[in-house]
Amino acid sequence: MYFDSNTKSPITLLELGLFTKVDKHLGTTQKVVVCCPEGFYRKGNVDIVCERYNIIQVPTLDILISFVQEMFK
């Protein structure tokens, strides 16, 4: 999930909320990886949600792409 700092991304914010369901066996959600760069107007909120629900965050779009590619290997 990528939050472009040039957008408001209301649907992506909604989708992040939907992905906060925690897997009781893993203690985390493995369904999503988030990249929310500095400058996104709700970055603080996204950071709090990711921390609270143990959602993996990566700092850049390039790292997000590499991370996801590795997940599917």
Task: Describe the SSE topology.
Elements (H helix, E strand, L loop, with lengths): L9 H9 L14 E3 L7 H10 L3 E3 L2 H11 L2
Parallel strand pairs: 1-2
Description:
The chain is mostly helical and 73 residues long. The protein has one domain (10-71). The chain has helices spanning 10-18, 43-52, 61-71; strands at residues 33-35, 56-58. The radius of gyration is 12 Å and the shape is globular. It starts with 9 loop residues before the first helix and ends with a helix.
Identify the notable features of this structure and list them briefly.
single chain; 41% helix; two-stranded parallel ribbon; 2 strands; mainly alpha; 3 helices; globular; 73 residues
Poorly predicted spans: none
Mean pLDDT: 90
- Secondary structure class reads mainly alpha
Radius of gyration: 12 Å
Number of domains: 1
Cα distance spanning the termini: 19 Å
Secondary-structure element string: HEHEH
Query: What fraction of the residues are assigned to beta strands by DSSP?
Result: 5-15%
Q: Strands of the largest sheet, in order across it?
A: 1-2
- What overall form do the CA principal axes indicate? globular
Quick recap of the structure?
41% of the residues lie in helices and 8% in strands. With 73 residues, it is mainly alpha-helical.
